[in-house]
Design brief:
heterodimer; A: mainly beta; four-stranded antiparallel sheet; 0% helix; B: mainly beta; seven-stranded mixed sheet
Amino acid sequence: EVQLVESGGGLVQPGGSLRLSCAASGFTFSSYAMHWVRQAPGKGLEYVSAISSNGGSTYYANSVKGRFTISRDNSKNTLYLQMGSLRAEDMAVYYCARVVVIGYYYSYNDYWGQGTLVTVSS
Amino acid sequence: EIVLTQSPGTLSLSPGERATLSCRASQSVSSSYLAWYQQKPGQAPRLLIYGASSRATGIPDRFSGSGSGTDFTLTISRLEPEDFAVYYCQQYGSSPLGTFGQGTKLEIK
């Protein structure tokens, strides 16, 4: 059974840092690209970042570029999101999601974690 | 960036009725690279449809997707109580980070 379990969320002050983790099981993690997707309270879904299966390619939304870093450790079956210079508008539930790659294209997400809440407040 | 606009914002229907949800793209979505997700309160999104019309594993056949180019539709033929949720469309293929529509809330009338 495919499982994605996020952790690391919590309360952080504006300007602070936080590292999210996503532990994967039930599939060959190293064969899949991964996404981080966030959802602000009462709002819709927003892609934050993507990483290729070997970690060699990374992509960021303009809203987080230069502040967030996505990475992965395929030996530990774990995805990470290092978040820095956090702002009030970064407050959201953060989901990790497995990517189905079609040819060269990152496509849809067939499995999602349950999410972890990041609260940015003083 | 392709912008997706979903309509209506809220749809009020009764169990047993047919639901039709729309997703319109600001430019053509190549190869019908469009997906639909269902999200219930406090839960992660669940993939329903990919490639505009292919049902994901385990999705009941009352859910169907159609469309191409810039206009796509999710149809739920006969609403069950568990179908009341928020539905998002998502386009992919133009960027490693796709885009979502703003969502349609399907509520019980």
